Automatic annotation (TrEMBL):
Compositional bias segments (type: Polar residues): 136-146
Protein name: Serine protease Do-like HtrB
GN (gene name): htrB
Stretches with biased composition (Basic and acidic residues): 1-21
Classification of source organism: Bacteria, Bacillati, Bacillota, Clostridia, Eubacteriales
Example GO molecular function: serine-type endopeptidase activity
Species for this entry: uncultured Anaerotruncus sp
Amino acid sequence: MSDTNYNDRDPFEGDTPKDENGFQDSTASGEGPYGPNSSANGQQPGWGPGNQQQGSSYQYNPNAGWAGGSSAGREEYKWNFADYESASEPPKARAKRSRGFTVFASILCVVLAIGVLSFAGYGVYSMVGDRDQKNVDSSSSQTQMPGLSIQEKPATSEQAAADGSLTTTQIIKKVKPSVVGIVTYQGNNSFASSGAGSGIIMTSDGYILTNAHVVEKAVGIKVVLDNGEEYSASLIGSDTRTDIAVIKIEAQNLTYADFGNSDQVEEGERVVAIGNPTGMQLAGSTTQGIISALDRAVKSENGYTMRFLQTDAAINPGNSGGPLVNEFGQVIGINSAKYVNEGYEGIGFAIPINDALPIVEQLITNGKVTGRPMLGITGEPIDSVLSRMYSVPTGVHILSVDPNADIASKNVVPGDIITQVNGTAVASADDISQVLDGFKPGDKVKLTIYRRSNSSVGGRTFEVSVTLMSDNGDGTVSPASK
């Protein structure tokens, strides 16, 4: 193998004419310097045009180097390094920007701009708002939209009207501190309360007025004042006939109620009821109404007929024992939910205070009502219409007779009709009570009795003399000596 000296011989040297830069023209043969199928008229950077002759191609042999072609017309090859470097370097690609990134950047810029403007606007608004608020507070003449600002309540006079009447608010402030809650317990190995009601403080040392049915059968009584203080109470006395009871707590300097004359009450007067409907959960609730009627006769469960003030102020269970107050802040009645008919609205009853106070005085003094005479019967009225309908005289139809009463020993039985007491005609239990008011237990009275015959036609009349018994106030009687 012969050595080829690449320094003595240009490997790209051939017979093809070269241009002034030393490049051969490849257009004549249709082959470019890189081989066949190169562009016939195209130029590559660094390769000048030449006049390569047909068949004057070069071949490269690894052992012999470049061979072939004619040596005629050979010229010295000159390499243009500047053109070669420019040809060998690939064109710089233009950086492509992501469209999504551009959109995201744009949105981010907008958001930041809005944020900056918002903070700036809020700062300006705050400064202006504070300044305006200070101006509003410092100047009462500042114009404002109606209903958009909180106004102070106008100052009102705390004094009563010229006639002494009070507003509802003034009545509540005056009377409410004297109203208490009453919680009762009946034992039975249970710590739960058995009932609840209301009461009225009568004295500064703790005497409290309430209904008898509120404390009935209680073995323990708790009193809750308007300020939340709690006390254990003792029962002083109870009278079921009038539904009045008195209890006491050991306390001093209590706020007590003022009492008014219930005989002066007129229909249509404004009244306020204060109490604890449903118990202590709604303690101190106030309702308002008018006096709907006077002297309403309502029969109690034990057969007694009681007289009430009727009102449309709401009186619910738990209000029992609380005050019914007139427009002067005076207690004129004791509310009693016991006599409220279920299913009716706007009908409430209160015991007139003039009827209650004599009972209260006796309960405090004696622990019970004494000196109240009683026949020892229960009955129902027979008016003139019933009299004609059943062909019997008007009077009081006897329903029951107390076996401890003197009348039971005089052969008076249920079904008989009392027509007269000491010569005075009677047609109701109230008529009998009015006659007996002039007597005392132990006195004797004469009764006129009508008894129907077994044939249902006609009957007979007879008289008996009976000794009046003492009413115990619980539906029972006892001899006067006791």
